[in-house]
Amino acid sequence: MSIDAFTIPEAAEEAAWIRERVAAFRFFEEPEGAGWAHGANRDYMEKLRDYWLEGFDWPAAVARLNRHAHVRVDVGDGFRLHAIHKRSSRADARPLLIAHGWPGSVLEFEAILDRLAEPESPDQPAFHVVAPSLPGYAWSDRPKTMLGPRAVAGLYDRLMPALGYDRYLYQGGDWGSVIGGWIGIDSARVEAIHLNGYGLRSADLHPETPEDIAWLQKAMAVRERETAYLQLQGTKPQSLGFAMMDSPMGVAAWFAEKFVGWSDVKAGVVDPPYSLDWMLANIMVYLTTRSFLTATWIYRGMFLEGGFAMPEGRRVEVPTGVAAFPHDLLAFPPRPMVERGYNVVRYTPMPRGGHFASLEEPELFLADLRGFAAGL
């Protein structure tokens, strides 16, 4: 298994084509007072486009990302995963694989990578951090077929020994939480997992208490309101690709809606709670690598694998930490329900925060991950 150092390219020709398409975009009507209730908000998208054309510096974003050490690793059969690989100077550092989801990227961890590897205090645990891009995303290879999260878990589990780590800790949200569940079931290498999303679930989710019923009702309401994208990307993603692969503004709107709907948006705030620079850098990761479509394949792959449920009678037995952010799309149920599928040793109800935890609430996220690792 070969390991090659890698530098994120600016992809200047692709960036020029994107700019032309953004400049040529024609806006259209929306209902009065629509806000974000019916999808992407026109006022925000106009502001985003103006900044894209007049203020955003993509080369600077690439240079910032290239501060970190990047690799592309052959994890078998010539398939290469991209990853940020940040080794700690600490002799007691432990290997940590930290996994993003959709519509995010390794940019979600930009503000915490250095702090994970070189913590502020010697009393805080240090990590050799491995942050891969999902297969079909960004600078990882495109799979020839639609891989589901269990197959991706196998690739991630091979990535760590390829980098020299026979044992490791795992952290994940969004797809990272689903993959983490499968790693917890299938891997002989993982020592413990920390999750900030309720991805892979026990086959038994029958509610037993009023708290269970309340969680299930809320989860069903969120599914009704927020997951049409999942059904589309999980059934007919290729049709969506014909529109999105030709429209940078379409991709931007598709993503912006999620960063509003899945975040802990404060009262009176109508835009995504992230800077335009961050939003556009994340969008450009998908656009300059032409990976919007192949990034949707994991949804179809999951349904082909069988969905979100664990196999009957199976459970994650390795120690599991739960960071339960209240406004997450994949919000955790009460602890007893989670324990049907996981060996929960730490369960932290967070006071605030949503789906993009390391981005929204880095202090809460870091404190819980560090506390979990220190207590193992």
From TrEMBL:
Cross-referenced Pfam families: EHN (PF06441)
Catalytic residue list: 174 (nucleophile), 299 (proton donor), 355 (proton acceptor)
EC number, as in UniProt: 3.3.2.9
GO biological process, one term: epoxide metabolic process
Source domain of life: Bacteria
Keyword Hydrolase (UniProt): yes
UniProt keyword annotation of Flavoprotein present: no
Positions of the Epoxide hydrolase N-terminal domain: 4-109
Key words, A-Z: Aromatic hydrocarbons catabolism, Hydrolase
GO molecular function: cis-stilbene-oxide hydrolase activity
Family: Belongs to the peptidase S33 family.
PANTHER family: EPOXIDE HYDROLASE, EPOXIDE HYDROLASE 1-RELATED
Name of the protein in question: Microsomal epoxide hydrolase
The organism of origin for this protein: Polymorphobacter multimanifer
